[in-house]
């Protein structure tokens, strides 16, 4: 699968969200960070904003829920028009039931791991998911430095996906930029969230294309992608 870029609107101007969403058309996804000031110490947006964004752009919405009780709220984001819904395993009471519900409602189901959460206890859940998100910063804020110490977890997750012969995607989120995206791709990521590295640039659409090119070149040279 080709590398996919998902610009995070957390780094956009919230007073001009429709324009900012249009500024990255050509991206594979638009990453929407939902924060509730409980699961993370920051507050962003909710279902009504996602409904409005859905009407403002043709780019599919990749909703990253950093909220408590995703079991209750995640289905509402599918109804609001999200094409992919990511919940945090640390917050979910019943991750398998929730993933099945998201899929049954017609969206891609994805599960996120904070930096201190290992992948190994969740190996058996992977077939229930369309994507696994390895956080490469502590969730809560854009513009943080990439955590290199997450690279081994990305590698181990890619190995598990290969071991089970799954088609699922592996997303990285946090500090992904022109300086770090190649390391992520080499380690096995194939969906890249980038906030400040896209919206912090003069030409966000060109930044998306540049990141995609770098990721694709690094993937082509990576051993995990041989035969893909
Ligand atoms: O989920 C989060 C932060 O919790 C991210 O999606 C950030 O919005 C990414 O921003 P950058 O680190 O790329 O600036
Ligand atoms: Fe995110």
From TrEMBL:
Pfam families: Ribul_P_3_epim
Catalytic activity field: D-ribulose 5-phosphate = D-xylulose 5-phosphate
Pathway: Carbohydrate degradation
Residues at which a divalent metal cation binds: 31, 33, 64, 173
Gene Ontology process terms (BP): pentose catabolic process; pentose-phosphate shunt
Keyword Transferase: no
GO cellular component labels: cytoplasm
UniProt family annotation: Belongs to the ribulose-phosphate 3-epimerase family.
Protein name listed in UniProt: Ribulose-phosphate 3-epimerase
Species annotation: Streptomyces coryli
Classification of source organism: Bacteria, Bacillati, Actinomycetota, Actinomycetes, Kitasatosporales
Gene name in the database record: rpe
């Amino acid at each position: 699968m080709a590398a996919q870029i998902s610009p995070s609107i957390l780094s956009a101007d919230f007073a001009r969200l429709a324009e900012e969403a249009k500024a990255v058309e050509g991206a594979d996804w638009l990453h929407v960070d939902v924060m509730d000031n409980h699961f993370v110490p920051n507050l962003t947006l909710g279902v009504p904003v996602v409904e409005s964004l859905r009407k403002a752009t043709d780019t599919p919405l990749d909703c990253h829920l950093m909220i408590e009780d995703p079991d209750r709220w995640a289905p509402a984001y599918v109804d609001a028009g999200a094409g992919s819904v990511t919940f945090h395993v640390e917050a979910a009471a019943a991750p398998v039931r929730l993933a099945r519900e998201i899929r049954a409602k017609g969206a891609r189901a994805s599960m996120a791991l904070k930096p201190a959460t290992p992948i190994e206890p969740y190996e058996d859940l992977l077939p229930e998911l369309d994507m696994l998100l390895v956080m490469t910063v502590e969730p809560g804020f854009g513009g943080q430095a990439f955590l290199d110490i997450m690279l081994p977890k990305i590698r181990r997750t890619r190995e598990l996906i290969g071991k089970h012969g799954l088609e699922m995607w592996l997303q990285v989120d946090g500090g992904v930029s022109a300086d770090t995206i190649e390391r992520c791709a080499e380690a096995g990521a194939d969906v890249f969230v980038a906030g400040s590295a896209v919206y912090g640039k003069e030409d966000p659409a060109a930044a998306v294309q540049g990141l995609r090119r770098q990721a694709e070149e690094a993937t082509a040279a990576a051993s995990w992608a041989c035969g893909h």
